[in-house]
Amino acid sequence: MKISLATNFDDSLIDEVKEYPIYEVFGKMKNDFIGGGRPNNDLNDVETEKFERHVKKVRENGIKFNYLLNGSCLSNREQDIEWQNKFKDFLTYLSNVGVNALTVSNPFILQFVKKYFKDEFTVRVSTFACVDSYTKAKYWEDMEADYICTDFVKINRDFNELKYMVEHLKKAKIEILVTNSCLKNCPMIYTHTNGLSHASGSSSEKNKYEDWGLFFCQKRELEDLSEYIKSPWVRPEDLEYYEKIGIENFKITERDFPTDELVKRVKAYTERNYDGNLLDLVQGHGVVTKDILELKKRDVNTRSDIYNEIKRVRGLGVPRECDRHIYIDNKKLEGFIKFFVSGNCTGKCEQCGYCKKIAEKSIVPNEEVRKYLLDLYNKYDNVKI
């Protein structure tokens, strides 16, 4: 088992997790040449001095530092010679301060890195590249990718395809993202990743970004709770099934989480056990800073107020102020994954009903919070266009 862990640039995080099987931590500065997977307005700024000190701390503890260059759209700037020269200087800087791994989504960037910095960086292909088949993985391997983190909304539970990848790739290692609660086969994936990329690059300050793609997914899950079960997360207890087909690399998010939450995730996955709400492990938001949580409804009507109210209730970019909208009892999911390991999932959900039955057994909704959020999402849909 090897864990790729998000870093929040708190040096104490490294002290807390260095005894766990962490082979790398990943992160990036708030503004750089290439955007990433989180909008700037939801991230804390990381000063150059703090960044360099943290990279040094990581490397001194025998861990790789993986810098995210995973924006899925660069507005074709990568083809400009002047931009390439500046990017080359930036990569030289990263190498000099101790960064020794990179995550990319753009094949052009992978080719650029391998041409000029082949011996300085190992390179991981991001989930944003949406690698969902052996054929796609082979293309990336032929471009000398070292690790490939597969499409997190499509094939996390396709054990036949994952096994084929592992057995037939000659060099590249397969990695899966385990802490994700997106919709399975989400129709927003390409639009969403491009939007996030533009909202996190060095020019993003000029644009006000609202994460409407995320709201689309969240609303669908609230309308049909079985979508939470279909979502491609991986329970700590189920890692063994991936290891049996040869996968040993697992990715744990989130970069904007406090240290204790990241340690909790690492501990759960390392110990292969968690007794509580599965959302605490797999959702990319919703942390709390106080013990007593109470839903306080607000009368909101403007687009900005509605948007910010959703963020407050869900805990998006800010601490959550009320109980979660649902509770997924992780212990009631024992044996759940065997249905997929056995290849019984056909993808025809209306005919099957397996995930719906699991949802009825394992999910307890907080109807007050759920209904309030649905009302807010409906209001937002009415004003966003």
Low-confidence stretches: none
How far apart lie the N and C ends? 46 Å
Overall residue-averaged pLDDT value: 92
| Topology as a string of helices (H) and strands (E) | EHEHEHEHEHEHEHHHHEHHHEHHHEH
Largest sheet: 8 strands, parallel, barrel
Number of helices: 17
The CATH architecture of the largest domain is: Alpha-Beta Barrel
CATH homologous superfamily descriptor of the largest domain: Aldolase class I
Radius of gyration: 20 Å
Helicity level:
40-55%
| CATH third-level topology of the largest domain | TIM Barrel
Number of domains: 2
Strand line-up across the major sheet: 1-2-3-4-5-6-7-8
Range of strand content: 5-15%
Structural class: alpha/beta
What is the name of the CATH class of the largest domain?
Answer: Alpha Beta
Q: What's the total count of β strands? A: 10
Query: How would you sum up the global shape?
Result: globular
Describe the protein's architecture and organization.
Helix 8 packs across helix 17 (367-383) and helix 13 packs antiparallel against helix 17. This protein has 17 helices and ten strands. The radius of gyration is 20 Å and the shape is globular. The relative contact order is 0.12. It folds into two domains: 2-282, Alpha-Beta Barrel (TIM Barrel); 303-383, no CATH class. 42% of the residues lie in helices and 11% in strands. Strand 2 (22-27), helix 2 and strand 3 form a beta-alpha-beta unit. By secondary structure, the chain is α/β, with parallel strands linked by helices.
Summarize the structure.
The chain is of the alpha/beta class. It is built from 17 helices and ten strands.
